[in-house]
Amino acid sequence: MRIGLLTEGGYPYVSGDAGLWCDRLVRGLGQHEFDLYALSRTRRQEDEGRLPLPPHVGRVRTAPLWTAGEDGVRYGRRARRRFAESYGELAEILCAGPGTPDAPGTPDAHSANASNSANASNGANAVYGAGAVYGANAVYGAGEPDAAGGVGAAPGSLADRFGNALHGLADLARDEGGLAGALRSDTALRALESACRAPGALRTAREARVPDLLAVAAHLERALRPLSLDWYGDDGLGAADLCHATSGGPAALAGLLAGHFSGLPLLVTEYGVHLRSHFLALDSGAATPAVRALLAAFHGRLAAEVYRRAALVTPGNAHARRWQERCGADRARIRTVHPGMAADRFTEVGEAPDRADPGTLVWVGRIEPAKDLVSLLHAFAEIRRAEPTARLRVVGAPAGPEGEAYLGHCRMLAAQLFPDEAEGVHAVGDNPVSFEEIGGPAAPTLADAYAAGAVVVLSSVVEGFPAGLVEAMFCGRATVSTDVGAVVEVIGGTGLVVPPRNPRALAEACVALLRDPERRERLGAAARARALELFTVEQNIAAFDSLYLEIVSHCPVRRVVLGRAGEPLPFAVPAEVHVPGRWTGPTARVAHQPGPGRAPGDAPRPAPARATSRAATEGSL
User: Fold this and answer.
1) Three-state SS for 17?
2) Cys-Cys link to 595, which of 128, 466, 537, 604 (CB 3.0-4.6 A)?
3) Whole-prediction pTM value?
């Protein structure tokens, strides 16, 4: 089958997010064809170049999110009216107050989809949509069919109106050649101002001033750039069998538009929840309450729309799954797929656990405040009182300027807590805490760093998927971790877990393992077996291959192939095209007849069949 892989700020660029697992996924599924559609975040990312691609990657199309190209489109009167209606509808939804049906805080909101997870509103984490599916994806949803043959939000609900507004803008961009100028126009600004001043609007939205409206309009222009792309025709995503968005946000928005224009099913994978990242960015910025409220409303609505339209949603862990369910994703269409990690480089260490120094604790990771090395150092002070020969090795590089400052603070704290000790008056003092980096003489490789310790410690106060913990499990090491993020889900019962910011509990757990080598060995062996079963690259690739086949079997894309005279060719797309592999033979040659505007021998271009034409197509057959 052909998969349209949608990325934002990562693959196939050398730098960025999710590049490694996307590259492993594409290379591991050589029986399928991939087309890449990448949104870049910075000019530097584009200048650094791209990764080499395998031969079964066909099209590679890119678009920048960091700059707005001038499309040169000037709307006529009718196009301006269409834009004002669709953008005004979008602005009204973002400003909708608690009294609006289906708005956050309304008790009976989303009653048509009560089977979904609870949609409660709570500050920035408000839920803005209901989990439902449309069109060809109806097999995965619940509820009454809508006019297109699927199921949807209650007619007139904000979730339904939000989707219609996006589709109206996308249709306008396709008809007129772009939206860039219109999204930066005075018409857009006036629509936002009118929605904020309307009766029943959010109180924080009514407080918006002109600078706030300008900031919101600029952000919406960047977020809606996928609407103006030329990716959705039958020479692009329209030729795929399914879309796989590797994140929420703009990448998933492109997948929504492919479903709107061509009926393609959408698979959304989130190893870090895009909506959560946006909320954290808003909290750390200097935006006013009005800007934060309106942007939170937009991204919340967009996330809900993505989840209710997607055929399947694949979080990377239970923490991400809970976010998705709270934002309206239907539990029946969620499949947890853990990130795949390469285990081969840790094989030697995992098969030789006796290499470890029995009195050494190891911490490995990026040095930054979220890792809470301060608590670890205070915990180690208590460990030294119970086990005077214990040592702590901190292995990792600082993450940016903030990490550099934090590393300096940790070095000073270690010097205060553990003055250099010497065995005699003629011996050189030694600090039991060492700070090292991968590649140094003491830790030439990552596997060597884990091999040096009997116990691996994770002391974070914030963590998503703990990749370092999985690496320690591959190495067969017993672990002591704080209960944050997906730690408990990853570790299972193969390690000790303590509350975050609790040095005493961390110290007691470490001492218990240092004093019991047999327990360390049992936990390390169990951890390695669990990691090899759940967190390898092979299981990740096999899971996505199975999901691709599941989606295509339930949501086949029905295409009409046009012949020489521009009329549909019956049976030109045989059933075998949905079976993995490349097919040649008499059945495939039917589709290679020259059509209008093509040279003989060129493959005819398949035209997507609308959902409304299904009955007519079946009748003609």
Assistant:
1) strand
2) 604
3) 0.79
